[in-house]
């Protein structure tokens, strides 16, 4: 997966924990498919000099969660199940890309799959379920 400069990349202005990992940028490809990327910085690396697994998991969780949100017209969604398989190390010096796909969506939940890519190699696959949150506004 390579960077696509033809997409409308949005810095979704993270809050809370995600401020420490991001910034993340997300774009819709269409058909329930989204892309997200993070520029790897020294703070994202582990003791071995490659991207920390927690950073990869955070990017995948954000890519799929924000995709679920966009698919529902902006309704927030919270992760209720998440799994990841690491395939290769993501290396320093470039972006880490995420791809998310909506597999199935109901009014209450969204089933997602995702992949991460670094330097032209797939580094991880992920899947999960996101629960749409009810508004607290009366």
Question: What's the short version?
Answer:
By secondary structure, this protein is an alpha+beta fold.
Describe the structure.
This protein is α+β, with helices and mostly antiparallel strands and 138 residues long. The chain is 17% helix and 43% strand. The chain has a seven-stranded antiparallel sheet, with helices on one face. The longest helix has 19 residues. The protein is globular. It starts with 9 loop residues before the first strand and ends in a 6-residue tail after the last strand.
Distance between the termini: 44 Å
User: Which structural class best describes the helix and strand composition?
Assistant: alpha+beta
What string, H for helix and E for strand, traces the elements in order? Answer: EHEEHEEEE
Q: Strand tally, please?
A: 7
Please tell me the overall pLDDT. Answer: 88
What's the story with the biggest beta sheet?
7 strands, antiparallel
Low-confidence segments: none
Q: Helical amount among residues, as a percent range?
A: 10-25%
Please state roughly what percent of the residues sit in beta strands, choosing from under 5%, 5-15%, 15-25%, 25-35%, 35-45% or over 45%.
35-45%
Please report the number of helical segments.
2
What is the gyration radius calculated from CA atoms?
A: 14 Å
User: Which of globular, elongated, flat, extended, rod-shaped describes the shape?
Assistant: globular
Describe the structure using short key phrases:
43% strand, seven-stranded antiparallel sheet, 17% helix, 7 strands, alpha+beta
């Amino acid at each position: 997966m390579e960077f696509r400069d033809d997409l409308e990349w949005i810095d979704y202005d993270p809050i809370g924990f995600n401020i420490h990992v991001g910034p993340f940028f997300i774009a819709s490809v269409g058909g329930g498919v989204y892309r997200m990327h993070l520029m790897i910085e020294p703070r994202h690396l582990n003791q071995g000099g490659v991207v920390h697994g927690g950073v990869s998991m955070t990017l995948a969780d954000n890519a799929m969660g924000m995709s679920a949100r966009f698919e529902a017209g902006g309704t927030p969604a919270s992760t209720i199940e998440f799994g990841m398989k690491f395939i290769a190390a993501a290396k320093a010096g470039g972006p880490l890309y995420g791809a998310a796909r909506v597999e199935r969506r109901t009014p209450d939940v969204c089933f997602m799959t995702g992949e991460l890519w670094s330097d032209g190699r797939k580094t991880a696959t992920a899947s999960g379920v996101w629960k749409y949150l009810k508004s607290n506004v009366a």
